[in-house]
Specification:
about 400 residues; alpha/beta; TIM Barrel; 2 domains; 22 strands
């Protein structure tokens, strides 16, 4: 019987718990069988060997907050005009093997239709990166911190009935929901979401200290794109922002596109938080991987020009920088070592989402692996569930 084994040899790999020099990863079917120094592996008959020159490996990246890519917008799935397959392909070409399509606030009936359509799309096998849940950014957020979301779609008071309808429309696929802790009913919302297995994430908010701590004590353990959509730091008034930096119970998202955050703010967050509580996200839009032009996030028109994604008022509206480029800003902007920065887009994200089968290069974990060229960090190959789904023709001996 054929063993269906593949051996990948690289200059080094980031597990990301440690760096292994002159490494090899042995996979069988969809799982990692063994990992270690390349000299320890026997090249048995029938073994497929991929020996890279001038390359390194990481676990496949996990993007927990991304609105679109490749011309697909998660908040417009109900229109049937765009295909999630295009998003899946673009992401896997950049080393992303798992993603959480993120939707924004919209009209009552549109949100329900869209979540249902998106969950149907996600139930099918995708050609590249795997969609494993839905992230709802709103609608129970502060209208004064709505960002590029349409203010008419924002609910400034929690409606538990509507929340239940949203979760039901998504057919149990919602993994995360952003809410503002200062809204009436926020604690009850946290309790409902936790009962349904959904991660309550604080953001798009003007919450003060007491309101924020009340939500954390109720079970909120996540923060949506720290610094963006919340009050600036103040030396005498502690708000949501200060609590997110200093409460070790909470994981924080950082948009790592080099534009949403000043490098010193990235460094500040990475110094304040335990490294395993920092999660790098793209916040990418449908313009990611696409040429400059006119796009949208749900009902909001956006313009992408030379990598900048903005709404009609000139506000940043997501980004087009994906994780293969973004994660290096965590090293260049902060004190983070390479292994810790890699963890922010792999194992930390998996841990936050309770995805125990991936995010690490370890035996029995899902064989999701990304290979990059040393120096340029150019994607060379991506393996999803043991299958090679993206490959260039270079860097193999």
């Amino acid at each position: 019987m054929k063993k269906n084994r593949k051996l990948f040899i690289t200059d080094y790999c980031l597990t990301p718990l440690k760096k292994i020099e002159k490494s090899a990863i042995l996979c069988q079917n969809d799982k990692i069988l063994a990992i270690g120094g390349a000299s320890a592996f026997v090249r048995e008959e029938g073994l497929e060997i991929y020996d890279f020159d001038n390359a390194y490996a990481t676990p496949g990246f996990i993007d927990t907050h991304i609105h679109g890519a490749g011309g697909f917008d998660s908040s417009s799935a109900h229109t049937g005009l765009e295909k999630i397959e295009d998003m899946s392909r673009i992401l896997v070409d950049r080393g992303v093997t798992t993603f959480i399509p993120t939707v924004v606030s919209d009209k009552y009936d549109v949100m329900l239709k869209n979540l249902n359509a998106l969950s149907t799309m996600m139930s099918k096998d995708l050609p590249g990166a795997e969609a494993v849940g839905i992230n709802i950014e709103g609608p129970f957020i502060n209208p004064q911190k709505s960002g590029s979301q349409e203010s008419s779609a924002i609910r400034d008071k929690v409606d538990l009935g509507f929340c239940r309808e949203l979760l039901s429309a998504a057919n149990g696929m919602v993994k995360k929901m952003t809410f503002a802790p200062e809204l009436d009913g926020a604690v009850e919302l946290v309790e409902l979401l936790r009962d349904e297995g959904v991660i309550p994430s604080m953001g798009h908010s003007l919450a003060q200290e007491k309101e924020t701590l009340r939500a954390i004590d109720a079970g909120a353990r996540s923060c949506t794109h720290l610094f963006n959509g919340m009050p600036p730091l103040h030396q005498r008034r502690v708000t949501l922002t200060g609590i997110m930096l200093t409460d070790a119970r909470v994981s924080v998202e950082l948009i790592i596109d080099g534009r949403h955050l000043h490098p010193r703010m990235v460094d500040l967050a990475c110094r304040c938080k335990p490294f395993d509580k920092v999660i790098g996200i793209s916040d990418g839009t449908m313009g990611s991987g696409m040429p400059s032009g006119e796009y949208h996030i749900g009902p909001t028109p956006i313009k992408v020009d030379n990598g900048f994604s903005q709404n009609k008022n000139g506000l940043l509206a997501g980004t087009t920088t994906l994780l293969d480029t973004g994660w290096h800003s965590l090293m260049s902007y902060s004190h983070m070592r390479e292994v810790n920065a890699a963890a922010c887009v792999t194992s930390n994200a998996a841990k936050c989402l309770n995805l125990e089968d991936r995010g690490l290069l370890q035996p029995l974990k899902k064989a999701d692996i990304a290979f990059f060229e040393r120096g340029t960090n150019r994607p060379l190959m991506t393996v999803c569930g043991g299958k090679i789904v993206f490959q260039t023709n270079t860097n193999l001996k």
